Predict the structure of Riboflavin biosynthesis protein RibD.
Amino acid sequence: MTGADRRFMSLALGLARRGLGNVWPNPAVGCVIVREGRIVGRGWTQPGGRPHAEVRALAQAGAAARGAVVYVTLEPCAHHGKTPPCSEALIAAGVARVVSAMEDPDPRVSGGGHEKLRAAGIAVETGCLEAEARALQAGFLSRITRNRPWLALKLASSFDGRIATATGESQWITGPEARARVHAMRAEFDAVMVGGGTARADDPLLTVRNFTPLRAPVRVIVSETLDLPSARLAGSLDQAPLWLMHGPRAPREARDYWSELGAELFDLPALAGGGLDPFAVMEALGARGLTRVFCEGGGQFAAALATAGLVDELIGFTAGVLLGSDGRAGIGGMGVGNLADAPRFRLVETTRIGADVLHRWRRD
């Protein structure tokens, strides 16, 4: 790969990022078409997953696509779905070379797109900025290979890891800049999820505020018995979808109430000691096409997800305030007796946000 290849692929990855949170169940793909060193077409997957990035870029390039080089962040699709395959569109446009960041693990594609292109006489090269592409596609790859979405756990806490005072006061530990960043992050995920305890304590809207996203994230609340406040949630079904995950013990009256309001209900198995099976929760979300989920607690629910090994990324907003051991811990008990048994993550980002610190960690 040349320096120009990496430069144009980097541009395609930047375009792909625009689709995060907007395109599920499809992957967020970016495409750049270059002829004689000049960009003649750009595209990224549109809200709802269509049109695909390659189709958008080809439409912009027009006749200039003939003999051009195409940079795409994921192997062009090879199967007929609601739209014809992008590999066939590239062939019909007469492109000379396709550089893709990675092969698509979806069984409907899985090398088939590259094979079609090569069979048509188009030069194909793969692996350009593959690590960066895999990081961007972590959610889609998780859904395809693990049958569940990528899960990021967000905590806004004091320096000593507390999310509220001893009396439960939590608004606001972090500053306005950090809270604004959280809303921007929500918009890059397919869903925002909390446990029933957080829903009861805060009656949160879980919507994106300060700006209007192209596609509102699904709001997911995990509550075994559907013992939920209704004031804000019930009055906001027109703002964003609401999915409620509950167990067999949820009263029929509660199920009917939320269903009639327009919420979608998921009846899932409960654990013997109480609470829903976290694996069942994540698999149900994956089965519905979600690729990226932004979890905002609470403590017990976060502990259950972490103990089950389902947390892929930690996103922390830490404030320079001390609340002491009588404050409320960000994560509930996990029963960790030995350090070797504790989930570990590697640091990937540290940024100052106003008066607070943002730090992101990923599990290997």
Q: What stands out?
A: The mean pLDDT is 93. The chain has two domains: 3-137, 148-363.
